[in-house]
Design brief:
single chain; alpha/beta; 7-stranded mixed beta sheet; 10 helices; about 20% strand
């Protein structure tokens, strides 16, 4: 059964796609399908081994037109296009894994497709802390932002009905609205195991290593190799802003070698790249929620 990776980007972030593809090529010949949402033709882009470019014009016209009518922000278009791209690729591909373009692989990810032989959907938890007795704001974040990370999702052709539901849900609302328990396209993943009983939750904690799971996925040096919890080799790291910020603060030093490899690869495709520009601290709204939680906790103690 045919397999494919895919990702979504704007032209300004193609250098991250090239770095992701560079990391994949070290271990696999499975192609990486790249949807460039702000382009009308693909022949203008650099040719890279393993990359197949796509534009919005190739996807389901009804979904794409509805997305463009409702949303103007690039982020919203990108998030809403995710299930539409998956549906498009599933027409001719048996198993597809979506990857955010800020992921980077350090070991082969081919084994991830094996989960999609007996299962129809593959999800990756954030692995945030869920301790009700310590720093409970992290436990609350699980419910506010979602149990699963939308930067990674695997599907096979039997998952089409659920993926189509996801596309329609994103059209309904793609926003961060905590009153409605919504977080962009991501919070909808929480219901996937109910909609599709053959959903597998990835237990390998060396996948989707990121700043937000530094406590739950302990980095250890085991026999000269950095592992997670002394068991899992690091398959891929999710280089979101929080991950960069923790490197800036010196909070994830065991992964510094991995980080340097990623930054050097990014500079290969964008020589003037400065990672410090991405090491942003939490925004004012995050700090507001944190201090509000702290204040309420003063009255929550017996």
């Amino acid at each position: 059964m045919s397999r494919a990776f895919c990702t979504i980007t704007t032209r300004s972030h193609l250098f991250k796609v090239y770095a992701l593809n560079h990391s994949l090529r070290a271990f696999t010949d499975i192609p990486l399908h790249v949807l460039v949402i702000d382009a009308n033709q693909t022949n203008q882009f650099e040719k890279h081994s393993g990359i197949i470019y796509h534009t919005l014009d190739e996807l389901d016209g009804a979904f794409v037109n509805a997305i463009l009518r409702k949303y103007s922000r690039t982020d919203h278009i990108r998030w809403c296009s995710k299930p539409v791209l998956l549906l498009h690729l599933l027409e001719n591909t048996g198993r597809v894994i979506y990857l955010d373009n800020d992921l980077f692989f350090y070991h082969s990810g081919e084994f991830l497709f094996d989960y999609l032989i007996e299962n129809n959907i593959l999800l990756s938890p954030h692995w945030r802390i869920a301790d009700p007795e310590w720093e409970q704001i992290w436990m609350i974040t699980n419910f506010r932002e979602g149990i699963y990370n939308a930067g990674f999702i695997g599907v096979n052709q039997k998952a089409g009905k659920t993926v189509e539901w996801w596309a329609k849900a994103c059209l309904y609302r793609c926003e961060r609205n905590f009153y409605y328990a919504l977080f962009d396209d991501q919070k909808y993943l929480d219901i996937f195991p109910v909609l599709e009983p053959k959903t597998h939750v990835l237990a390998h904690k060396g996948c989707n290593v990121a700043g937000w799971n530094i406590k739950n996925c302990t980095r250890t040096l085991t026999n000269g190799e950095v592992m997670v919890n002394g068991i899992y080799p690091i398959v891929f790291i999710h280089y979101a802003n929080d991950t960069f910020y923790r490197f800036k603060r010196g909070e994830d030093n065991l992964l510094w070698g991995n980080f340097e490899k990623y930054v050097n690869t990014l500079k290969r495709y964008k020589p003037d790249y400065d990672w410090l520009a991405e090491a942003k601290p939490p925004g004012w709204l995050a700090w507001f929620r944190y201090f509000r939680w702290r204040f309420r906790e003063l009255f929550n103690k017996k």
